[in-house]
Amino acid sequence: MKHNVWKTRLGFYFVAIGSACGLGNLWRFPYVVGENGGGAFVLLYVLTALVLGLPLLIGELMIGRVMRKPVLPATRDIESRARRENETFPFSALGKMMVFVTLLMIAFYAVISGWVLHFGTQFLLVTIGAAQIQEISGMTALLQNGLLQLGLASVHLIITVIIVVKGVHEGLEKWVGALMPLFVILLIFMISQTIQLPSSGEALRFLFYPDFSKLNFSSLIHAIGHVLFTLSVGFGTMVTFGSYLRDREHIPTAGFRVTVIDTFISLFAGLLIFPVALFVSQVPLTDPSLLFESLPIFFRDIPFGDVLGLIFFISLYLASLAATIGLFETVVSNSLHQFKITRLQASWGVAGLIFLISLFPALSSSFFEGYRFFGKSVLELFDALIVSWILPIVALVTLWTLRRGLKEKEKEAHFIDPLKVESIALYPHWKFAITWLVPGLIILGLILQVF
Ligand code: PHE
Prior knowledge:
77% of the residues lie in helices and 0% in strands. The chain is mainly alpha-helical. The radius of gyration is 21 Å and the shape is globular. It starts with 8 loop residues before the first helix and ends with a helix. Phenylalanine binds next to α1, α2, α10 and α14.
């Protein structure tokens, strides 16, 4: 297979940031902050992003660029290379784990993207005058309607396939690049509105005043898991993107930029949602419905709320589409290496498989309503499995692969840029992080969670 490289330098940034910023920032971050008590967790999250997320993100990009392949063939090559040097660790397991969690994730993500489509459509109807803004139905009605959720998730999958089929350049670079700036501008404009609500003081205190007594035993793993989720680390996506990255691009700088931008977008999401949620007060801050229950109420009460609501949900949808494309591309790029099939066949095949998996989260509060696992619904189980268990464990295996699967010379060559003095100084710190700090934090988080 001919190897793709990003057409432009910005191509990588657009796609990496487009894949990082998605539902994780706008939808998941606020309610996870709510669940873990606010400010102290926000602080923990930002620190975790920098000391744990960033080193791992650099590591994943590095595996991709060193091996110049998606994660399945890359880890297979690492394994056979290592065999020759009597290292017996089954590195290829990393590739399989990543593709597995990516499949689960797309199914789960498609269902939530379907929720976004649902609200977007309702605002469209209001904007064109076909419905009244008061008639917008909340989450309860949607959650009870399993078939609607499944239908919306399928629409989302079909749109994704249509874009991915066109390939990396036509599909990814062009689409995602155009959408991102638009979204950021809209977000800032909306914050300028919500911050004028009388509840904004309370919201700022909740978000930024750290009360450490609010943290619990699971907070560390929640922070770690969410950082991996939001930075797209642990899915092999960054391996694929790294494999398309040019040689002269400096991986640590690229990773740092993606981390900082992604973290800011999450903080923005908090600034947007908490003033509204606290203002309306009947919305539970700890619930996955937080975004969808609070924002429509805000749009209902402001001038031009219908149009703004429509623009917001369109942008949110596009952000989740960009993220889904990143996930989807990971599975497609791997299967193109694995089997002799065309991109078209791979894309539809993957979509079909994901449709079957998505039956579970989509029907979670209808058909599977009676099923509870450790007190969690099927949808919550997907979330908990991915975020609190599989991603942290995949991260541990990634760290081991970086340590024993890549050669010292390779790591050095892909971290250090002789023209950037700081990269020479930072290299030992990165090595320390991936050898001791990051694995230590993950193991501690997993142990605390069991309590
Ligand atoms: N990071 C994305 C988000 O926060 C999710 C994602 C994970 C996208 C992995 C692509 C790959 O929504």
